[in-house]
Amino acid sequence: MIQVSQLRKSFMTPVVREGRFSGIRTLFSRDYRIKEAVRDISFTIGKGEFVGYIGPNGAGKSTTIKMLSGILHPSSGTVYINGDNPHRNRRKVARRIGVVFGQRSQLWWDLPVKDSFDILAEMYKVAPADKRRRLWELAELLSLEEFWQTPVRKLSLGQRMRADLAAAMLHDPDLLFLDEPTIGLDVTAKRNIRQFLKTLNLEFGKTVLLTTHDMDDIEELCSRVMVINHGALAYDGTIDELRGLIGLPTVIRVTFRGTFSVPEEASAGLSSRFRVTEKTRHGVVIEGNRQEATAMDMLRELSQWGDIDDIHMEEPEFEDVIHRIY
Ligand SMILES: Nc1ncnc2c1ncn2[C@@H]1O[C@H](COP(=O)(O)OP(=O)(O)OP(=O)(O)O)[C@@H](O)[C@H]1O
């Protein structure tokens, strides 16, 4: 569905002059600095995937999304959306994709929400019957009626985001690019948006590429995560594999029924599969790396120490994992 090969984008920015009349001198400067915002990125995304695209500020996420949606022209490399080049076949590709930039609205600021949808339906040539049906579905999923007649500038951030998401779906695209759709929202609003995105993906089979700084968005929604850092792809895989690669331990707390005995090599930290970090009268706490031993391996070994009564497992926080990469 999306094929990206050796994608690059460089920006030329004038070198900022210092001293008197620095603004004017910068404006007429012939010295430029090249900023490589995206460097040799390649990936493919299949139909129905929900992929998180994460990275620190300035890593190149928005620049990538702009190239995928045809807003920016790559310096080199190729992008194909369903076999089409989004820059050359911009109109055709635009019909297949929906884009939401959380920081900017695509709705008309002074018009009631309803009017923006009328304009968008015209622009995308959505047939009146389709428009009615989709608006009915979207209004149901995103509770649009409460602000249907309100000018966009008077909407709360959460309402504005719901309206923007609905607007992006009005022409029924199969692919959604979302750039920070939960930015600045409170917990309830975030939950509602995530629920909507889950429904789009699971029930309507939409493919989603999501950029966010909210790791809960990623954990809740994405089966795959791509990490971009300094313009280059640093990781592409599942969240669990990423946890394993980074090597932060999984913590397992076990209590035993009655007596139990910890083998000497485990007490001494000689077991290569995990370490015992705490021992009490009722049980132990162990830490293990899921790359070296699965949770089942660890539990199988623990069950030989005594009669297990209760188990509590804590995966490393995704946030901590991400800090290790950035
Ligand atoms: N039009 C532009 N002209 C010059 N430099 C730009 C332009 N757009 C982006 N950049 C630079 O390219 C780099 C990548 O920017 P981009 O907006 O893609 O990052 P991002 O990962 O989306 O960041 P954030 O998380 O802060 O939104 C940054 O250093 C940015 O300053």
UniProtKB/TrEMBL annotation:
Occurrences of domain ABC transporter (ranges): 2-255
Keyword Transport attached: yes
Pfam families named in the record: ABC_tran
Keyword tags: ATP-binding, Nucleotide-binding, Transport
Source species taxonomy: Bacteria, Bacillati, Bacillota, Bacilli, Bacillales
PROSITE patterns per UniProt: ABC_TRANSPORTER_1 (PS00211), ABC_TRANSPORTER_2 (PS50893)
Protein name: ATP-binding cassette domain-containing protein
Coiled-coil residue spans: none
Keyword field contains Nucleotide-binding: yes
MF term (GO), any: ATP binding
Ranges annotated as spanning the membrane: none
Organism (species): Paenibacillus filicis
